[in-house]
Design brief:
The complex is a heterodimer of chains A (204) and B (796). Chain A is of the alpha+beta class and 204 residues long. Chain A is built from eight helices and five strands. The longest helix of chain B has 17 residues. The chains are: A alpha+beta (204), B alpha/beta (796).
């Protein structure tokens, strides 16, 4: 597998930002994930080459973080929070509803590749519990019915870009606090933490 | 030898103790005589404090604090408690946690009986577990390499193996995966743990999670007999424990007594014992019968025949017989071989090497000779030698440690990339044949070599110098050593591979040397290996005695060696196997080998170490010195070899550099670390001034870089099933520019023709070569000779 020049240039720029090459391993993994839709073995091999780590060491990092997907995921990844606040306010019911509506069990991907469903750990939205994410875009105050409706809507409309504020307006409930002005970008926008570094999906 | 450490006073369990400053508490408390149980801590690796087993209480301003003794440095006035109720409770708790998932399959576990987890559970653990839940289950052992199996259920996640492969051997092919609830040690998919040092992880694993295929299910530890010895595979001379059961060697374990291997072994050393029990071992003398077939014979008949034929030939003059070999056995055997050749046969035609190493006078007589431990203090290390990782792997570990852990600046000069390159500050490449020119430029510090030259001006410098490939002239190494000797604080390590080649040189197995690092008197003629082989072909030498040498396979021009043995009128081969040379001999005599004879060996530092006997060996084989003595007696002489110990005593009494180095001295206390024999007798170095050696320019012709790899087609490697399968198929390494020049597509087969024949091999593109160079691994199939100039063409 080879990356195209644009991806390689971006990778080189990421590596160049750190005094030690190996420090670039996490943003590079995001880049590799954006390239293949998940972290492929080839992607990890390329990251190892770029950072001077061994393949096993890169795998060690990649396998620690659940948000590095090492298997392909569906078009829409629905992550339902089941940590304590969400759990107390019915997060598990939301998860069951989402699973029932999509026909995809927790931790799996549907055969048609449309949905992946997973339970997630705390996503920092306890004030708006129960919350879920679609492609890591946050929606708060989701009831089981809202969850089902959300999944139906996604399946019918197949939006190319998922935007949290949009979904919040359609299917969300009470929010934890005012998240400020709507930002463009959506699911394929920069991963917030690594935005300044120019990683996943930047400029696409 | 070691400097006296500063001492600080601490209180251990209420008793004051003086312990070395700057150490970790676990070591300090050990120095005070108290053992702290631990799993993850290993004295040769950085502490991580992962297993929590070494918790002890330290008194502090806010009362007692439980702390990991492996991560806390000692301080003056510290008061620690290792046996308080809190400590006991902590130890019980840690062990209870570790045993949550650890299976109790000790009765079928290879580690059972020598398992730190088992032992410490017995000593410090709770009597029973409160846990009734099901334990973690994984498929029972999965192979993570050809040699190592991983049982993840048993793993207690101490990270010793992953830290070893990262910190010490530098090939982190194993790592934690799925950190969290699903954590396990594993490899990357389809990338096995194919490290040259993988066996060390099995030795340091504190449970039975990592096991090695050659030893698995072969014995229980308490049934093993063991003896300390010295690894017979290369000239580093690692200290090992040889362990056997029912007269079969079952494993080697590294012994950490410091100066050579620091406890580590390479896999070739660790698993390279299987040849000793090979069914191919010679077990009876063989005599070539009237039909030209080697046939089993009685010892008396074979010895009579050898004495009669050698005696008749030797009567024709001192030049008519010759001896090759003696670099693989003990010093005592080499000493006996030298006496047999010089005194009984009266010849000075003898050589322990086969023209593939360095001048024996250099090996025996170098001044400013260093030790491996000099690397611990070196500021700059120059390696202009074979790829140490392939030829002297544990020396590679020591150089790597100097360059990483100890911060020395490493300069590697080699025709292509070597295992040390990733940790080198400067890597310098050259075409074989252009080394002299490169040395001149390096000495001048001209052009891009200025930085490396500046580093060489910062001592102490350790120079490890050998012959990078067979195509390099040995005189180049002498010139490099002469240059290095002038560097500040320089100590020199001339390196060549065969295990006891230094001992053989010290025992005078060279026309120019007498035992004990003494130059042969001027005017003493004698042929070296090349002279003997050419002499045999020319008919000037007629009789040949081979001692553990296989010139037909090992000589750099094998065709010449085969012609020589063909031309010899009488050849006797003494050895362990019917190798290619023995198969051409008139008489073959089976000898006892490693772990079957007692004696001493000398490593590349000139360190004399003991090898010990543990096994009887094949019933029909005999010790070399006895064989030689019996032949000598039949010829009316004697080499005084009543026993190997008698020979050792004679050496200690008569060979100047070995004065006082007796078996007794090497067997106890500090002597177990070996005794470095002092330099050459007298102050004059034995080495002649390096000749100004200027090879003819080769222009745009292709040159050959022929160098060894660790696992090759050598007899001892191939005679053991574990190592035999590790030999990789040979390939011709071609620089991409040359591939374009000669129109060779990727992966194509090429015919390479050299001084001694041609061979067809698949190609691998190797941009680490200097263009105009082709690299072939030595002893990995057909040989094309070692001549520098070669031709190459694509084969359709």
């Amino acid at each position: 597998m080879t990356w195209d020049r644009r991806t390689e240039d971006r990778a080189a720029a990421i590596v160049g930002r750190y005094p030690e090459k190996r420090s670039a391993v996490m943003p590079l993994l995001y880049l590799a994930m954006a390239e293949d839709g998940y972290l492929s073995e080839d992607g990890m091999r390329r990251v190892a080459q770029l950072t001077g780590l061994s393949n096993a060491q890169v795998q060690g990092v990649a396998s620690f973080y659940t948000m590095y997907k090492r298997d392909g995921v569906g078009e829409y990844l629905v992550s339902v929070c089941t940590s304590i606040s969400c759990m107390l306010l019915g997060g598990d019911d939301v998860l069951d509803a989402v699973a029932a509506e999509t026909g995809v069990a927790d931790g799996e991907t549907g055969e048609d590749g449309l949905f992946s469903v997973e339970h997630g750990e705390c996503i920092g939205a306890c004030g708006g519990a129960p919350a879920l994410q679609v492609n890591y875009e946050l929606i708060e105050g989701v009831t089981p019915d809202h969850g089902r409706a959300l999944c139906r809507w996604l399946a019918e409309n197949r939006p190319a870009v998922v935007r949290g504020d949009d979904l919040q307006e359609r299917f969300g409930g009470r929010r934890s606090f005012d998240w400020g002005p709507v930002e463009a970008g959506g699911a394929t926008g920069a991963v917030p933490a690594f935005g300044p570094l120019g990683t996943a999906g930047e400029g696409s | 030898m070691a400097e006296q450490p500063t001492l600080v006073t601490i209180t251990v369990d209420g008793k004051p103790a003086q312990v070395p400053a700057g150490t970790l508490l676990i070591e300090a408390v050990k120095a005070a005589g108290v053992h702290i149980p631990h799993f993850c801590y290993h004295p040769r690796m950085k502490p991580v404090g992962m297993c929590r087993m070494c918790l002890i209480e330290v008194e502090g301003p806010r009362g007692m604090l439980l702390t990991t003794s492996c991560t806390t440095p000692v301080a003056d006035g510290m008061a620690v408690h290792t046996e308080s109720d809190t400590v006991k409770k902590a130890q019980e708790g840690v062990l209870e946690f570790l045993l949550l998932n650890h299976p109790l399959d000790c009765p079928v576990c290879d580690r059972g009986g020598e398992c730190p987890l088992q032992d410490q559970t017995m000593a410090c653990g709770p009597g029973e577990s409160r846990m009734v839940e099901e334990k973690r289950h994984y498929p029972k052992p999965i192979p993570i390499s050809d040699l190592v199996l991983l049982d993840r259920e048993r793993c207690i996640l101490c990270a010793r193996c992953t830290r070893f492969s990262d910190e010490i051997s530098g090939d982190p092919l194993i790592e934690f995966k799925g950190r969290g609830n699903a954590v396990e040690v594993n490899t990357f998919p389809d990338e096995p743990f194919a490290s040259y040092f993988s066996g060390n992880t099995v030795q340091i694993c504190p449970v039975g999670a990592l096991t090695a295929t050659p030893y698995r299910f072969r014995a229980r530890p308490w049934d093993l007999e063991a003896v300390e010895s010295t690894c017979p595979h290369c000239s580093v001379g690692c200290r090992i424990s040889v362990q056997s059961s029912r007269n079969q060697v079952l494993r080697f374990m590294g012994v950490d007594n410091g100066p050579t291997n620091q406890g580590w072994l390479c896999d070739k050393g660790r698993f390279g014992f299987e040849y000793l029990g090979s069914p191919q071992r010679l077990a009876a003398p063989l005599i070539r019968n009237a039909d030209g077939v080697l046939q089993e014979a009685a010892w008396s008949d074979a010895l009579d025949l050898v004495a009669e034929r050698l005696g008749a030939l030797a009567a024709g003059g001192p030049d008519v017989v010759a001896g090759l070999g003696g670099a693989r056995g003990t010093n005592e055997e080499a000493f006996a071989f030298g006496k047999f050749l010089r005194e009984t046969l009266g010849t000075n035609n003898l050589d322990a090497q086969l023209g593939d190493g360095l001048d024996a006078r250099l090996l025996a007589g170098i001044t400013a000779r260093g030790t491996i431990d000099d690397l611990e203090r070196a500021r700059t290390v120059l390696v202009w030698a074979p790829d140490l990782k392939e030829e002297l792997p544990v020396l590679y570990l020591r150089v790597r440690r100097a360059a990483t852990e100890l911060g020395a600046r490493l300069i590697v000069v080699h025709p292509r990339e070597t295992g040390l390159d990733p940790v080198a500050a400067h890597t310098i490449r050259y075409r074989p044949g252009a080394g002299t020119e490169l040395l001149r430029r390096l000495a001048d510090g001209s052009g891009d070599l200025a930085e490396a030259r500046r580093a060489l001006g910062e001592g102490p410098v350790v120079a490890i110098v050998g012959r990078p490939g067979a195509g390099d002239d040995p005189r180049l190494a002498e010139a490099v050593l002469a240059f290095a000797a002038g560097l500040p604080g320089a100590t020199l390590l001339p390196v060549t591979r065969r295990s006891n080649v230094y001992g053989a040189a010290d025992m005078g197995l060279d026309p120019g040397l007498l035992p004990g690092r003494v130059a042969a008197p001027a005017g003493t003629g004698g042929r070296d290996a090349a002279g003997i082989i050419e002499g045999l072909i020319a008919g000037e030498v007629a009789g040949l005695v081979l001692l553990g040498a296989d010139p037909v396979a090992d000589y750099l021009e094998p065709a010449r060696a085969a012609a020589a043995l063909e031309a010899a009128s009488f050849t006797v081969a003494i050895g362990l196997f019917l190798d290619e040379s023995a198969a051409m001999a008139d008489v073959v005599l089976p000898a006892l080998g490693f772990a079957e004879v007692e004696g001493t060996v000398t490593n590349l530092e000139g360190r004399v170490q003991k090898v010990n006997r543990l096994l009887p060996g094949p019933a029909g084989a005999r010790p070399t010195h006895e064989i030689l003595e019996d032949i000598a007696r039949r010829m009316g002489g004697s080499i005084g070899a009543a026993s190997a110990e008698a020979l050792a005593a004679e050496m200690a009494a008569t060979a100047p550099a070995y004065a006082g180095i007796t078996w007794e001295a090497l067997s106890w206390g500090e002597g177990r670390r070996g005794i470095v024999a002092p330099g050459p007798a007298g102050s004059q170095p034995l080495v002649h001034a390096p000749e100004d050696h200027a090879p003819p320019p080769v222009g745009r012709n292709l040159v050959l870089h022929l160098a060894r790899v660790l696992y090759d087609q050598g007899t001892l490697t191939q005679a053991g099933p574990s190592l035999a399968k590790l030999a990789r198929p040979a390939a011709a390494h071609v620089h991409p520019e040359d591939a374009t020049r000669f129109g060779i597509p990727a992966g194509a087969t090429v015919r390479v023709t050299g001084s001694g024949g041609s061979v067809e091999l698949p190609t691998v593109f190797d941009p680490s070569l200097v263009a105009g160079t082709v690299y072939l691994p030595l002893h990995c199939g057909a040989s094309i000779g070692a001549g520098l100039e070669i031709t190459m063409e694509a084969v359709s």
